[in-house]
Amino acid sequence: MQEEVITCRRHADVLHLDAPLQLIVPHLTESGFIGVSQMRFFVLDWHLISALIERWRPEMHTFILLIRECTITLEDIDIITRLPIDDHAVTGNYRLDWPSVCEEYLGIRPPPHVFKGCGLYMSWLIGQFEAIPEEADDATLLIHARAYIMRLIVGSLFNDKSNTRVNLMFLPLLADMRQARQYSWGSACLAYLYRELCRGANPETKEISGALFILQIWAWERIETVALSLPDPAPHDDAPLGSRYAC
Q1: Radius of gyration of the chain (CA)
Q2: Roughly what angle, to the nearest 10 degrees, separates helices 46-54 and 212-222?
Q3: Which of 234, 204, 222, 195 has the alpha carbon at shortest distance from 72?
Q4: Rounded CA gap, 104 and 108, in Å?
Q5: What is residue 19's DSSP assignment?
Q6: What tens digit of pLDDT does each residue of 51-97 get?
Q7: 153-183 pLDDT, tens digit each
Q8: Transmembrane segments in this chain: where (predicted)?
Q9: Listed residue (204, 205, 236, 200) closest to 215, CA to CA
Q10: For residues 156 and 11, what is the distance between their CA atoms, to the nearest angstrom?
Q11: Statement: the pTM of the whole predicted model exceeds 0.70
Q12: Whole-angstrom Cα distance, residue 210 to residue 197?
């Protein structure tokens, strides 16, 4: 039984990630990340997440509630985020020449001091791609789209406890935006979340990470006793369900 409120780690960058500029929206749409880009920041409820973790059973990957047994599924990931959930597995290589990888896909070779293994300091990435140049060509827009998606991936979907670095393992998967959509990002996100929930079920665990914002939205949507009262319950246009929640 979880005796304390568990610390829910979240990448600090998610606080400062604005809605994408219209110039890169076509690339986000093509890659399958447009839905996640439409979701806005809200505060994580550590007490709610801790209560869910208390009821998580790692051997079954389900929550045991008073009235039923349930879990977050791929369908939930699809509805909440609109991330692709079919096709190829998301895999990466940790043994690449990372400065060369950045030069190829981000158009710039970062200095050695902004690397730590396959991690690139988020502050450097934000500083380099904070603004899109006027009259940028499509190659430049593609680079900015990749940088934006990397911030989405590491800041929201696969965030870890470092809170300062981008895992460059994902960058080569964004070489071609059409190909990027062929990866099952939703499946990978759910698997990572399951792993963190299983870790959190250990009473000795003090903090967890992962896509906890998706878990919280799932709880608001699926558990009546914790549901929020929203002034406008319907998502706008073709936006994902999760886009109706914001601070």
Answers
A1: 18
A2: 80
A3: 222
A4: 8
A5: P
A6: 999 999 999 999 999 878 999 999 999 999 999 999 899 998 888 99
A7: 988 899 877 778 889 999 999 999 999 999 9
A8: none
A9: 200
A10: 7
A11: yes
A12: 9
